[in-house]
User: Which sequence fits this backbone?
């Protein structure tokens, strides 16, 4: 029974993540359309949701071309890396108290490690393409992701200090007693949000791609399903970061405590989790619609001069409060 | 720094409010957008109130055209009135700039709010005079070039046009 549940959760996560990533392609365009006073894609199927399917078919049917000048092995490996690491990251996400693939006692570190490994995808893609724009994109992403990794890890340490565990299930359980960490660890949340956007290189921090200056950045030479994998990886990382923000800062499967107990008992915990994650994804899309992309040096100085001190001060204060209060 | 962050948050809020705004775009083939009468679309040749061609084959439109898509040949009828023998617009070159309309002294060439001119065959984009000529007067009803111009044509001699004085006999000595 136990094994069957795990099996179901694994395949549910796989299918759910792929499906959600495909639907997000349509959902993001539609939402962007609304925010830009357009209608967005609404032709294929009800509300245009068939666009997700049409997009997948298009990507699968396209010629899978490897440029003759590229480093073939690296070129082919690069797009798979991001999808594999992001899917592995989902292993530690607790959907409810009992519904998860693995409750590692180093779950948080596992997640950080997996997102760090995704850098290889962008880096190798840029390097293996033997293309100037791709190389520039890869170069930028290497610097950006390595530096934002630092704050991403550090911003979570306050949470770890309070809950006293790296396990994500324990972190959520701590929030049931102490209230959501978005309040007590507000600056940690801000920094993690920023670093999360930079990690998944979504707009406004999509400098590795930066289509206005670098054609398409690291995936300039990619087409067909290899490009599709990059796209899938981007949406998977968006979902993963959103579910991580939900788990770590917004109480995971817990309902908002100000609601009456009747509502909290009635709504199953998994609904809360998905609702919060969905809201978070919408916020990421809103960021894309509203915020202009910073210059590359602005991005780096923003990270090192503002976010890093902010994290350290946050860490210091959290430590002091825990020690003396 | 704080001001910059605040402005980002304000822009986030304002963009979010656009979720409830009405879309500026329309469902095109089903719902046609409103196009102003002055919209610069497909070019037509119009007629004067009497039903004659307005075009006098002066070639000003062809000269004004920045992409040289207008070609025409002047000819005359038996009364000395000019008209184009052929008038050809290559719409695959035309950029709908409206320079020809501005250059036209007789309001003959006019742009219309029609832009649906797709063709499967490129040659079909070349419009001859019979395709361009419409039966109406277009945007300037009541205007007839020869009724206000000093040129003598059939049934109208010099000095008989609107707002025109009789020609002075410069050979005469009488006051």
Assistant:
């Amino acid at each position: 029974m136990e094994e069957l549940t795990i099996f179901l959760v694994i395949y549910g996560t796989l299918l759910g993540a792929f499906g959600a990533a495909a639907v997000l392609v349509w959902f993001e365009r539609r939402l962007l359309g609304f925010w830009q006073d357009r209608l967005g894609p609404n032709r294929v199927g009800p509300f245009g949701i068939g666009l997700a399917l049409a997009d997948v078919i298009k990507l699968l049917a396209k010629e899978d071309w490897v440029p003759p000048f590229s480093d073939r092995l690296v070129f082919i490996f690069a797009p798979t890396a991001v999808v594999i690491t992001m899917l592995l990251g989902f292993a530690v996400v607790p959907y409810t108290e009992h519904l998860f693939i693995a409750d590692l006692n180093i779950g948080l570190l596992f997640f950080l490690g997996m997102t760090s490994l995704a850098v290889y995808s962008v880096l190798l893609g840029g390097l293996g393409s033997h293309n100037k724009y791709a190389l520039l994109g890869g170069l930028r992403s290497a610097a950006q992701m390595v530096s934002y990794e630092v704050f991403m890890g550090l911003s979570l340490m306050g949470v770890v200090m309070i809950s006293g565990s790296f396990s994500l299930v324990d972190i959520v359980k701590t929030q049931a007693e102490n209230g959501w960490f978005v309040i007590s660890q507000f600056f940690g949340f801000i920094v993690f949000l920023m670093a999360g956007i930079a990690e998944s290189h979504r707009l406004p921090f999509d400098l590795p791609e930066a289509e206005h200056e670098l054609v398409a950045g690291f995936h300039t030479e990619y087409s067909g399903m290899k490009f599709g994998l990059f796209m899938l990886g981007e949406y998977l990382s968006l979902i993963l970061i959103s579910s991580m923000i939900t788990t770590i800062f917004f109480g995971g499967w817990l309902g908002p405590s100000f609601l009456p107990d009747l509502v909290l008992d009635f709504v199953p915990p998994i609904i809360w989790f998905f609702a919060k994650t969905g809201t978070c994804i919408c916020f990421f899309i809103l960021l894309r619609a509203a915020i202009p992309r910073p210059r590359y040096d602005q991005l780096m100085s923003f990270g090192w001069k503002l976010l890093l001190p902010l994290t350290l001060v946050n860490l210091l204060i959290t430590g002091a409060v825990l020690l003396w209060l | 720094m704080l001001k910059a962050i605040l402005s980002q948050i304000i822009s986030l809020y304002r963009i979010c409010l656009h979720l409830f705004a009405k879309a500026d775009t329309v469902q095109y083939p089903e719902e046609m957008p409103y196009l102003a009468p002055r919209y610069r679309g497909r070019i037509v040749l119009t007629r004067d109130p009497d039903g004659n061609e307005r075009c006098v084959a002066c070639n000003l439109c062809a000269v004004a055209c920045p992409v040289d898509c207008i070609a025409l040949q002047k000819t005359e009828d038996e009364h000395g009135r000019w008209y184009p023998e052929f008038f050809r617009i290559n719409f695959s070159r035309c950029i709908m700039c409206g320079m020809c309309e501005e250059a036209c002294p007789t309001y003959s060439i006019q742009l219309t709010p029609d832009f649906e001119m797709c063709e499967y065959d490129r040659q079909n984009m070349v419009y001859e005079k019979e395709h361009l000529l419409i039966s109406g007067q277009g945007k300037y009803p009541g205007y007839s070039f020869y009724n206000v111009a000093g040129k003598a044509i059939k049934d109208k001699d010099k000095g008989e046009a609107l707002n025109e004085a009789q020609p002075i006999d410069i050979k005469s000595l009488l006051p």
Remarks:
- The radius of gyration of chain B is 25 Å.
